[in-house]
Amino acid sequence: MDKKVALITGAGQGIGAAIAKRLHHDGFSLALLGRTFDKVEKIAQEIQNDNGDAMAIQGDVANRDDVFAAVEKAYQHFGDFNVMVNNAGVAPTTPIDEVTPEVLENAERINVGGTIWGIQAASQMFKKLKHPGKIINASSQAGMTGNPNLTVYGSTKFAIRGITETTAKELAEFDITVNAFCPGIVVTPMMNDIAQNVADKAGKPFEWGMEQFAKDIALKRLSKPEDVAGCVSYLAGPDSNYMTGQSLLIDGGMVFN
Q: How many CB atoms lie within 10 A of CB 25?
């Protein structure tokens, strides 16, 4: 494909880092946004060492100004802007009786707010540049069906599906597509933390915690971040140009629609 520019939030590890590396191989120049600069700088350096074009940006997606500034920096640095991947998120594992206002507010600010700010910033830039654009949001298998102890996390991921459908309708007239990807159980630092928390609450070992999420996968194996990155590659590329408002499951066969 032609050289294009993508910004990926939460790109310092796990799924975000895998998406960055896959889009690099797809020919994208990349702006990588993360709260911890050292993490996104490390991924950007790996891409540069592979003859890629990447820059690291420090910022918090819960802060609207940070997201708008990151999009502007990406445009100023690369001279164009084509794809926004709203990947950053947190995943609290909190039984319903233990949900506090602080837990709920933090997840809402990052997962839901960060997605909305990313859509706003990207669509504003696409309109300014007067060309089509693609917005790709991170939902989840937990945004398709309920999972125990994930009331807060699941509520944000269900919300992102709704935001995706709504903004796809709003932005279609500008030739801006909005889609989402819905991973299942992916071996990442965040997923390991979730499994450990679930195991700790039950007084069980880590392996038991991971098994609670993995036991119902039809393909009988956990996902790698690269599996998810392949789905995002499709959404970022030309083969998905006629798709908008969709949330694609990439979960190995956990939820069937």
A: 12
